[in-house]
């Protein structure tokens, strides 16, 4: 998307557009780790002002997805396999807690929304729509966080998620991995719906252990 003059997006809306689209581009590999992020080029790419691009970069820097190097500018932060595993291990504990709390606290309406999202995920896997499935996984986690009513754990997870989104997306690209992910998240939803807190926590931790194992395997294959 490009734009000039009056056609450029500005303000908070523009900043959010760049945040969302650049985050998505990094996750799916359209923008790669180590790639320079030049504000005028981002403005042209996303149809926003240079200032909006700069403000969006500041947000992504705070998330740990982008870094600014003195005298060289901003670039996509390189997250090594070992760092990704360390983050995933933290997520494993936090996601287990959130799943446990969701099993204890979710309303009937929240369980229904988790099940509805799961059905959409099943269709995405059947249609081999990895990008759609990846977005629905994030929707699943958002719903789970809301139903858990544990704001501290939710905030910590949100702060970690962006840093490992690309590793998780690469995991889903491998043959059979999306189905494996779906089966794991279905076990989480079933346990939450049945109010089985121990099972919900175990299922959430097992789901992330599969991602950890895949990251470790990929790092040894390089």
Automatic annotation (TrEMBL):
Record-linked CDD domains: WHTH_GntR (cd07377)
Transport in keyword set: no
An example molecular function term from Gene Ontology annotations: DNA-binding transcription factor activity
Short name of any one Pfam family annotated for the protein: FCD
InterPro entries listed in its UniProt record: GntR_C (IPR011711), TF_FadR/GntR_C (IPR008920), Tscrpt_reg_HTH_GntR (IPR000524), WH-like_DNA-bd_sf (IPR036388), WH_DNA-bd_sf (IPR036390)
Domain HTH gntR-type positions: 12-79
Alphabetically ordered keywords of this record: DNA-binding, Transcription, Transcription regulation
Keyword Zinc-finger attached: no
PANTHER family hit by this protein: TRANSCRIPTIONAL REGULATOR, GNTR FAMILY (PTHR43537), UXU OPERON TRANSCRIPTIONAL REGULATOR (PTHR43537:SF5)
Name used for this protein in its record: DNA-binding GntR family transcriptional regulator
Originating species: Geodermatophilus tzadiensis
């Amino acid at each position: 998307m490009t734009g000039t003059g009056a056609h450029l997006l500005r303000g908070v809306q523009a900043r959010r557009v760049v945040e969302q689209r650049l985050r998505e581009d990094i996750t799916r590999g359209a923008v790669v780790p180590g790639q320079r992020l030049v504000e005028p080029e981002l403005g042209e790419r996303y149809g926003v002002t240079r200032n909006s691009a700069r403000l969006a970069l500041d947000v992504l820097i705070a998330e740990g997805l982008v870094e600014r190097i003195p005298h060289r500018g901003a670039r996509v932060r390189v997250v090594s396999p070992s760092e990704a595993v360390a983050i995933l291990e933290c997520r494993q504990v936090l996601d287990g807690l959130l799943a446990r709390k969701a099993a204890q606290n979710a309303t009937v309406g929240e369980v229904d929304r988790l099940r509805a999202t799961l059905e959409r995920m099943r269709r995405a896997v059947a249609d081999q729509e990895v990008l759609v499935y990846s977005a629905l996984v994030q929707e699943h986690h958002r719903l789970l966080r809301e139903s858990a009513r544990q704001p501290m754990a939710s905030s910590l997870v949100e702060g970690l998620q962006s840093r490992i989104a690309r590793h998780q997306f690469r995991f889903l690209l491998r043959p059979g991995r999306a189905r494996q992910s779906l089966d794991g998240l279905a076990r989480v939803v079933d346990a939450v719906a049945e109010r089985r807190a121990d099972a919900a926590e175990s299922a959430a931790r097992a789901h992330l252990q599969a991602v950890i194992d895949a990251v470790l395997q990929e790092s040894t294959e390089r």
